[in-house]
């Protein structure tokens, strides 16, 4: 993964590099995609998404954090394809997104309503709090958006007395799914082989 420089003074974020790697794998962004991020904060995800997707819309409710996103896009020589919106989703969400990531959880149910109504193909949400993870999993399921829940925890090794010990980060709950296209018979179908774990070549969604 290419290096991302991220000076920031925001209390939240940035999404950690290893978590971004899994996230970007699940989103599988392509040059034809319009990607939307809810809660861009430091811009860590926005910068990497801008290198992959054709178009990015980044929403952030806090003006100082949106400014941080702007600065970090510039610091990473990215952003020509990024539109920044100071907005609290679902306000300001575009209707033509292919992929959407919720890094911020405010109003997430309304954001998921939007994703379902506008048939957004890939939807991923990261959650760190247990109770929110449970409620959000249910909210994905109720809207028929859920494909998988991934939980993982990253630990970094450090040298201790000539051996290796580990510093652990908080666990991350990653909710992965999206709205399939509506088939001619009115039923849902996957848009391609990556849409369903049972159909994927490697047994995974992406
Ligand atoms: C955990 S941080 C996201 C970190 C970000 N992915 C990064 O790498 O820097 C959550 C951010 O989402 C923003 N946020 C939360 N809910 C939001 C909403 N509904 N619309 C826009 N921004 C939101 C918060 O202000 C905060 O900056």
UniProtKB/TrEMBL annotation:
Keyword Hydrolase: no
Residues annotated to bind S-adenosyl-L-methionine: 15, 39-43, 60, 89
Biased composition (Basic and acidic residues): 186-195
Residue ranges, annotated region (Disordered): 182-206
Pfam families (alphabetical): PCMT (PF01135)
EC identifiers of the protein: 2.1.1.196
GO biological process: one example: anaerobic cobalamin biosynthetic process
Protein name, per record: Probable cobalt-precorrin-6B C(15)-methyltransferase (decarboxylating)
Organism: Halobellus limi
Gene name in the database record: cbiT
């Amino acid at each position: 993964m290419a290096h991302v420089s991220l000076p920031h003074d925001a209390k939240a974020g940035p999404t950690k590099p290893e978590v971004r790697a899994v996230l970007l794998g699940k989103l599988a962004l392509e040059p034809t995609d319009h990607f939307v991020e809810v809660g861009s904060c430091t811009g860590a995800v926005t910068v990497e998404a801008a290198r992959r997707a054709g178009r990015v819309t980044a929403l952030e409710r806090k003006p100082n954090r949106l400014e941080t996103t702007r600065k970090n896009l510039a610091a990473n020589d990215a952003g020509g394809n990024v539109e920044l919106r100071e907005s609290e989703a679902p306000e300001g969400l575009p209707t033509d997104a292919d992929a959407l990531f919720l890094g911020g959880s405010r109003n997430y149910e309304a954001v998921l309503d939007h994703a379902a109504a506008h048939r957004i193909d890939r939807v991923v949400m990261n959650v760190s709090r247990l109770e929110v993870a449970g409620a959000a999993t249910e909210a994905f399921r109720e809207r028929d958006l859920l494909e998988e829940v991934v939980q993982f925890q990253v630990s970094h090794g450090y040298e201790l007395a000539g051996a290796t010990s580990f510093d652990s980060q908080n666990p991350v709950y990653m909710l992965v799914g999206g709205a399939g296209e509506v088939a001619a018979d009115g039923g849902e179908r996957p848009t391609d082989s990556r849409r369903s774990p049972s159909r994927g070549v490697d047994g995974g969604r992406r």
